[in-house]
Amino acid sequence: MLINMKLNLLKDHRFLMVICFFILQTSTSASLIKGDLQGVVLDGSNDKPLVNAVVKIEELNLYDIADKNGIFFLKNIPFGQYIIEVSHLGYKTIRMNISIISEYIGGIIIHLYPVPLETTTVVITGTHIDNKFDDMNELIGVLKGKELERELGLTLAATLKNETGISLRSMGPAPARPVIRGLGSDRIQITVDNIISTDLSSTSPDHAVAVEPFTIERIEVLRGPKILLHNSTSVGGIVNVIKEEIPTEIPNKISGLAGFYGELVNRGYLGATVLKVPYKKLVFRAEATKKKTDDVSTPKGILKNSNMGSSNISTGLSFIDDWGNTGLSVSQFELDYGVPGGFVGAHPNGVDVSILKRQFSLQFNYFLPFQSFEKLELKIARDYYRHTEYERADLIGAQFTIFNYRGSLNVHNKSFFLFDNGITGVSGEFRDFNIGGFVFTAPTKSYKGSFYSYQRYALGSFNYEASFRISYDQMNPRKANPSSKESFIKQRKFFTYSLSFSLLYRLNNHFYIGGNLSRTSRVPTIEELYSEGPHLAAYSYEIGNPNLQHERGIGLELFTYYKSENLYAMFTAFKNDFSYFIIPRNSGIINSQTLLPIYQTVGVPARFIGFESHIETTIFNQFSILCSFSFTRANFINGSPIPQIPPVKVITQLKYQNDAMILGIENETASAQKRVDI
User: Fold this and answer.
1) Per-residue pLDDT for 31 more than 60?
2) Which of 511, 416, 525 shows the shortest CA–CA distance to 475?
């Protein structure tokens, strides 16, 4: 018995020794596995290569200098997590986390942005993963630097109107709003520093966007899975305006910007100034703008009541430290503009509109000390918005006021489960919507809560993006006018979900193909549910439908793009099938009291199909040619056309560009849109 026990113990010890040896050998082998890292460093303002940029892995004291094409190559890096530092004289130095998990990681794109008034390092802590979706969006979905300055217009929509797939909806110069692939309303969300802008521009073509474009640093047009971080309409889009009203970086010196913009067609002007003042770990930012235009001059004469005037002021203060940053901002935006009249479909004498918006925002970012979780991000905003429409100077036709409270809490992850990085979060919103004047829509309090996640993953030649958003909405109308119908005062609750998945495959170092499949949903707006009365500026009598379901559909997109040193080309085809599409329809009835046509909101099946292309090539030296094509066709299920769909648009451009200037010729051609709703 004793001998058997000793033999068993001996066997157990040998077994343990074998296991320990195997673990030790595996660990030693893993530590000896090495990989190579290759990428390119570009100037963030013009996407040109940054020669002699220094790319360094701090932990290993390993570095490389970018060649004439901006390409760097770091070899023999042991597997693991590292921080790489990228720097160039006259540009902001950045630090980012990188994971070496394969023998070759290529295609990393790093953008450095000029710092004209600074000479020392400003550090940005973040994560960059080899993901070609960012590359594709950076090329065609972002306006920045000199391109933004060149395209700058008096409104946000005018600034974006030449981008592929984007048109503008307008009842005059001031109330212009972007339309993406024929979709408008709140299917297209406008955000400022990733916070949804509160206004009524999504509800009617006579309502203006409450965003001043002149002080914008960068505009991102987001499509695909990233949309679901902000909005449940996965087939729409997000126009994200980056102004950094709450600074996240500490400049070395006081920096500022002042500019002036003018237009001859309306004898208009716009002046703006931005100031940033650092003090130790504090950064103060302030901006002010003033804009004024007269009526627009057209080949057929002056377009009366097309003038506008606005003022904008904001201040922000941040505290920035190694653990993260926190800050707040206060802003006020005022806009007075005219909606032209005197033609079919418009108010006979035009309407004057006055907008006031005040916003208070709070932001908190904390860098988490965990391997798989990078940052905690909290955003809170409180908005007051007032919109007044004057039929004449002493008569208010309609007035809307909104108190809006919203907040979001996001966790940024990296190397978590199967994913390289992503964002998961929750958001909530409360809106108190009140109506006055000759509009009988029920005042409504609404509540929204959402849970969402966006993740991405790169594996060899494949890049994946996926996201979901689950939302609960509740709307509580209250009767404020004796003439309101009892059937309209109905509480509504909605539980919706949206999904989106994108795949991109690299055929070679220059050519990529991919696709997106999404399930979209949208809750009807307060106006779509409870409108009941004349809308003078839109020259219509609008009736909502408190029994509407939520909008839903399936979207499919196929795309390909090619990028080399002298050529960029992208081709996209899309199809969006809505089983329930919410839209106001002309009932064919005239309201006897106001003599206005009655529009009734309904939900019907609809289909949108389209094609887009964008080609840009350098022909010699600093000369380039650009051509873009956008086409959208939309029908109801019975084959009749959906109204307000942009016509075919072609933009061609010949451009000369160097470090000091851009000089070019541009032509925009649009076909006649004969597919109208009669």
Assistant:
1) no
2) 525
